[in-house]
Design brief:
Elements (H helix, E strand, L loop, with lengths): L3 H18 L4 H5 L23 E6 L5 E7 L4 E5 L10 H7 L4 E5 L16 H14 L5 E6 L1 H13 L4 E7 L13 H7 L6 H10 L11 H7 L4 H13 L4 H5 L2 H6 L3 H6 L5 E6 L5 H10 L3 E6 L8 H4 L1 H13 L4
Parallel strand pairs: 3-4, 3-5, 5-6, 6-7, 7-8
Antiparallel strand pairs: 1-2, 2-4
Helix pairs in contact: 3-15, 4-5
Keywords: Hydrolase, Signal
InterPro entries: AB_hydrolase_1, AB_hydrolase_fold, AB_hydrolase_sf
Pfam family, one: Abhydrolase_1
């Protein structure tokens, strides 16, 4: 049984933990500095070298604390990570782009430093979280960039709220529909990027490493993840794995909803702002990204063709990606 001294010490510890997680400086929030394993010219050798990087939180309308990483000043760029990802994995991109822009990276609920909860595991709720983030930061005209599932969160936002608060968009290698319907032609499946005939088998493979085959689940993304020959990618992945503790059970809850959404109508009819689309020759999504480009007026397609040109292209070559994204943001539309 705990005595009064133990209770007092515990309450002091909890209070200090709570204040730390709501602190602003990234090193203070994470309660540690971090030395990146690879020294890369022009990049921080340790986290404390990245001056001005902050981690903040806001509370959603359903009482969930959403964390976001923030650095820089000027035109706002808002990144929404993919499934299981978080701001730590964007560390190199934040560093590069924050020299010219006000960069935000949101940790979706149940991911990164955001709260882990048993409710709201739907793309629609994550899209509402995005709206409330924009409202919280009073961002009246932001550029939204979604990688993987992050693109779906943006499509859900546009479906619900339109594009009035969006200046430009960028999507990085996300299928229009993950689930392949049995009555689709092969052409439609490829155009939409569908990669599984069983959401349940896909979820088991992604979250529990259970065996599957390529006829049921396209596992190319995992194959390409293992091609870890980029020093930038090694730094950001090891940093994320060190400072973030995710719950596979909590993260997996959103996957069925994510896998069974088809955003075809949003792509065709609801995107009316300049859009950049990024993919690479080692991704199985190239045809779907081409289809998306053909459907969205004022869109520009980037197909990378180097050794890092896959689902993780932005992390494996952050210099090229950040340059291309910056040029797209700065380009004047006719």
């Amino acid at each position: 049984m705990m005595n009064k001294v133990h209770i007092l010490l515990l309450s002091m510890f909890l209070a200090s933990t709570s204040s730390a997680i709501f602190a602003r400086n990234a090193v203070d929030v994470l309660a540690q500095d971090y030395a990146f394993p690879n020294k890369i010219n022009g990049f921080p050798e340790k986290l404390s070298d990245f001056k001005g990087l902050e981690i903040k939180k806001f509370k959603t309308s359903d009482q969930v604390n959403i964390a976001y990483w923030e650095a820089g000043k000027g035109t706002p760029l808002v990144f929404i990570p993919g499934w299981s990802a978080n701001g730590a994995e964007f560390i190199n991109i934040i560093y590069l782009l924050s020299k010219h822009y006000h960069v935000y990276v949101i940790d979706p609920r149940n991911q990164g430093l955001s709260d882990q909860v048993d409710y709201g595991s739907r793309i629609s709720r994550l899209s509402m979280d995005l709206k409330e983030f924009l409202d919280h930061n009073k961002l009246e005209k932001a550029n939204l960039i979604g990688w993987s599932m992050g693109a779906s969160i943006i499509w859900g936002y546009i479906d619900l709220f339109g594009t009035d608060k969006i200046n430009k968009l960028a999507f990085i290698d996300e299928p229009v529909s993950i689930y392949a319907h049995a009555d689709w032609t092969e052409e439609r499946r490829l155009n939409l990027g569908a990669m599984t005939t069983s959401p349940e088998r896909m979820i088991a493979a992604f979250t529990k490493n259970e065996p599957t085959n390529q006829l049921v689940v396209d596992m190319n993304v995992f194959v390409r993840y293992q091609v870890n020959d980029s020093l930038y990618f090694q730094n950001s992945e090891e940093f994320a794995q060190t400072v973030i503790q995710n719950s596979p059970e909590k993260m997996s809850a959103v996957l069925f909803d994510h896998a069974t959404n088809n955003w075809e109508d949003v792509i065709k009819y609801k995107i009316n702002v300049p859009t950049a689309i990024f993919t690479g020759i080692y991704s199985n999504n190239v045809q779907s990204q081409k289809w998306m480009n053909s459907m969205i007026k004022h869109s520009k397609l980037f197909i990378y063709d180097d050794e890092h040109a896959d689902h993780f292209l932005a992390f494996k070559d952050p210099i090229k990606f950040s340059k291309d994204l910056g040029n797209f943001i700065e380009a004047k539309e006719n």
